[in-house]
Amino acid sequence: MSIGVHNIGQGCVTCLDYDEHYILTFPNGYGRQVNTLLDISIFHALSILTVPWIELGGECSISCSKTGYNASIVFHTKPFYGGKKHRITAEIFSPNDKKPFCSVEGEWNGVMYAKYSTGENTVFIDTKKMPIIKKKVRKLEDQEDFESRCLWKDVTYNLK
Fold first, then answer.
1. What is the pTM of this model?
2. For residue 91, what is the domain's CATH number?
């Protein structure tokens, strides 16, 4: 039992300190709950429901036109039997290169490890140790008509 959301389109993230703009696509989102049916007898069956979880899956990309760097990212869904949740692999490319200079793997909501083309292995990022940084957004009245917060302001207001 699951539900899937296929995210279409792209986003733009601006890194103000470096005046860089990153265009990115989004992974798919899934709400999962496995329903296991155990046959006890011909006349009886026991249904065991697991704890539901949210999962990301599919491929996405990130690119910066200013620097030329780009990344290809795969969010791996949990296999039906065994395996782990929240797995990710990625390859990071220098401008105009076809071969990645860095490969990343791990959990997108935990620790990710990097392996560089030089042979060096290191912790790429530990998301559990990252500080929460308040995002900077323009005031609603300064946004264009189709910027997310402006476009969805009525829905947000009514949900609140």
1. 0.72
2. 2.40.160.120
